[in-house]
Write a structure and sequence with these properties.
By secondary structure, the protein is α/β, with parallel strands linked by helices. It has two domains: 5-30 and 373-460, Immunoglobulin-like (Sandwich), CATH 2.60.40; 50-370, Aminopeptidase (3-Layer(aba) Sandwich). Helix content is 27%, strand content 23%. The protein contains eleven helices and 19 strands. The strands form five sheets. The chain has an eight-stranded mixed sheet with strand order 3-4-6-5-7-10-8-9, sandwiched between helices. A four-stranded mixed sheet has the order 17-14-13-19. A three-stranded antiparallel sheet has the order 16-15-18. It starts with a strand and ends in a 10-residue tail after the last strand.
């Protein structure tokens, strides 16, 4: 038994009741209930639908952002119109809760080196509006990019099938929308296919900037980019793993905020890193046997994805990508050279694998949108030297909120290992658990058992009043 000494008293009873909690208790995102819709939603993911989406997008020949906008059979415009029609069909199953729009804007040359002339960029956006007035403004975004490229990114005429990069991600988004649209969620979910990714994250940058300008509360963003190939260029085939990239120190953090984070060892506890932990936990519960591999980086070397503009605007965001990439089938002209097939062709994607990736995405999105909001203004009180840890946070007023949980782990542990339900109080003292020795978090729990991601508490220094002047 682990014991702690506080004020000279050995608190073994506290250690037994609080510290020795099984690891799975902290990793569980909810307590199972008969009315949980997520198992049914996950089961409805269909790999055949995903394969059809990929082959349809490939059939447009090229989806270069610089290709034809008005050819009904070839180019980015044909892909845009087909996606819009598919989202509209899905919206028809939502009971009026889903709306679909084309978010278009003219990108002038100058900002992006890969756009030499004024180009129309269009994001296809389907919004499943939240059903609870207290939660509908909280938004969760899932995206893939529907543009593609050849070896030369500004070649608008070459065949650019883009099956893995990124028809696989768009197919994931479309299938998630299909299975989620008939269901009600308190919070709002946005399903998005963006353009201009290969030209410099153009479409996602516009969406993120407009979201910030309009005060959108985006509580999490997933981008699915290159999630379809299971045989890597290294010869390794892996059908049971998806990587999730998340940044540590936030991209938009101020120097003062970064200084505080360094002082308390919070480099591994950004909101995006908490989101990645949450996805790991949800996958463990709803998609057993499929591994979410947390990669503690913003993205891969020499590459970037559509989550980055959201990070730069201060929104939590992560990237899903297959574990072993084959660069013969990314950003390559279709050809056979030296007996090797080059090009991003559909035969190099794996429909059942993408379906598993879609199940992880869908389960995590649904769990987030069903749970209460994560606690705001979480603080650790640092006014006294003690082996206890004093925590506080702002109250949750959502009607389906039930209670809070405290979670903690060793400073070197990748995920939460311990948890304790504490009721509805917005203050808690963890007896015998020193803030010097553990990383703490607090999360909200709904009446149906769904839990929010954990919020990392930052120090709150309560200054003593200045002495009165004589």
């Amino acid at each position: 038994m682990i014991t702690h000494r506080t004020a000279g008293v050995l608190t073994s009873a506290i250690a037994a009741a609080v510290i020795a909690i099984p690891m799975h208790a902290a990793n569980a995102t909810k307590s199972p209930t008969a009315g949980d819709p997520i198992p049914q939603i996950v089961r409805q993911i269909d790999s055949k639908n995903i394969e059809r989406t990929i082959r349809t997008l490939v059939s447009f020949g090229t989806r270069s952002t610089l290709s034809s906008q008005d050819d009904p059979k070839r180019g980015i415009g044909a892909a845009r119109d087909w996606l819009y029609s598919q989202f509209q069909k899905i919206a028809a199953t939502s009971g009026g809760r889903m709306t679909v729009e084309l978010q278009s804007f003219d990108q002038e040359p100058g900002r992006y080196a890969r756009i030499a002339t004024a180009t129309k960029i269009t994001n296809v956006v389907a919004t499943l509006h939240g059903s609870d007035p207290d939660s509908e403004k909280r938004v969760y975004v899932i995206s893939g990019h529907y543009d593609s490229m050849c070896t030369n990114v500004v070649d608008a005429q070459c065949d650019a099938p883009g099956a893995d990069d990124d028809a696989s991600g768009v197919a994931t988004v479309l299938e998630a929308a299909r299975v989620m649209a008939p269901h009600r969620f308190p919070a709002t979910i946005v399903f998005m296919a963006v353009a201009g990714e290969e030209q410099g994250l153009v479409g996602s940058t516009y969406y993120a900037e407009q979201a910030k300008k309009n005060g959108m509360d985006i509580d999490a963003m997933f981008t699915n980019d290159i999630v379809g190939n299971t045989l890597g260029g290294n010869g390794v085939r892996d059908r049971k793993t998806i990587r999730v990239f998340s940044e540590g120190v936030p991209s938009n953090e101020t120097p003062e905020e970064a200084r505080v984070r360094r002082s308390v060892g919070g480099e591994n506890d950004s909101v995006s890193r908490q989101l990645a932990r949450y996805i790991v936990q949800v996958a463990h519960e709803y998609v057993p046997g499929f591994r979410v591999w947390m990669i503690n980086r913003r993205d891969r070397y020499l590459r970037g994805g559509d989550h980055i503009p959201f990070l730069e605007q201060g929104y939590p965001a992560v990237r899903f990508t297959e574990p072993n990439e084959d660069y013969h089938h990314q950003h390559q002209n279709v050809r056979v050279e030296g007996g090797v097939q080059y090009g991003d062709l559909p035969q190099f994607t794996d429909g059942p694998y993408i379906a598993r990736v879609a199940r992880v995405n869908t389960a995590a999105l649904a769990s987030l949108a069903l749970a209460p909001a994560r606690p705001r203004e979480a603080r650790v009180i640092t006014t006294r030297l003690t082996n206890d840890t004093d925590l506080q946070w702002a109250p949750n007023s959502e009607p389906y909120f039930d209670h809070y949980e405290i979670v903690w782990r060793d400073t070197t542990a990748p995920t939460w290992t311990h948890s304790k339900a504490i009721g509805k109080e917005t203050k808690y003292t963890a007896p015998g658990l020193s803030k010097d020795n553990y990383i703490f978090g607090v999360r909200s729990v709904g009446r149906d058992g769904h839990k929010s991601p954990a919020s990392f508490p930052t120090p709150l220094l309560r200054r003593r009043p200045a002495p009165k002047q004589p």
